[in-house]
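During the no-cost extension, the postdoctoral fellow (Dr. R.K.) reprocessed legacy sequence entries with the updated structure-token encoder. One reprocessed record is reproduced below for audit purposes.
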Amino acid sequence: MISPAAIRNIMQSHGISCRKSLGQNFLIDNNIVRKIIASADLTESDLVVEIGPGLGALTTEIAHRAGKVIAVELDRGLLAALSEILSGLPNVEMILGDALKIDFDRLAGERTGEEYGSTGKKYKLMANLPYYITSPVLMRLLLGRFNISIIVIMIQVEVAERLAAAPGSKAYGALSLAVQYFAKPEILFRVPRTVFYPEPGVDSAVVRLTVRPEPAAVVCDENMLFNIIRSAFGKRRKTLLNSLTGSALGIDRDTCLSGLRNAGIDPGRRAETLSLAEFASLTNSIIEANS
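Re-encoded structure tokens follow.
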């Protein structure tokens, strides 16, 4: 199933086609598959949840190394093809479902008979995410606080750069901070568009997110932290004082100015210059100034 001809044959035999609306581009390079598998450091004791198994190129290799694989596929049309391709792998279970709605801890527990919730065992998650849904799925996984140890994903290279970006860089933004609050992102390697069928219009990168046992910063109100970050980057060319007081946060200028000064942050700085720790300090200071 790793060549364009094989993909065309299996899709023709099952009367299915690539759906652009779902961002379906199938990996056709064994070397890339092996590198992705190696990055997850799989063992026979691992449970792996895979989002978007497609036609099973990655699923097959995961199954050879992990104890069990739960593959979540949104496209009902691919399930019959997957059943045929993966029929010789008894440790693979396929689920029709939407990654934006599934409770992954509950799914893991129901399909294994073991406890994988917040007090149970951890599991790993792997995915080749369609470009249009990368950010929503990532935030669903992280904000949901599922008991996942690592996430290995293949995503658009520009998005990968945003996840790992540092303050002051062009790629640094609200997504960078949100992801780094919950996990440690590493860009492992780039994947050219030529190793997919059909070929997408952009290159990809494989990213490993090591989920932190505790968030990277301590704040009084997590929702307030993310609201401040979004507001600050919503008008990133403005100073922090102007972007925050002119936002939907409802913070008056004096409160914002007091919060910035108490956090030791120059009101004339812009959002892209602040670290996560500084945003956390600013959030706590604004809450205190507003109380």
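The beta strands are 26-27, 47-51, 68-73, 92-96, 123-128, 148-156, 183-191, 196-197, 204-211. The CA atoms of residues 83 and 94 lie 8 Å apart. The remaining legacy entries will be reprocessed before the final report is submitted.
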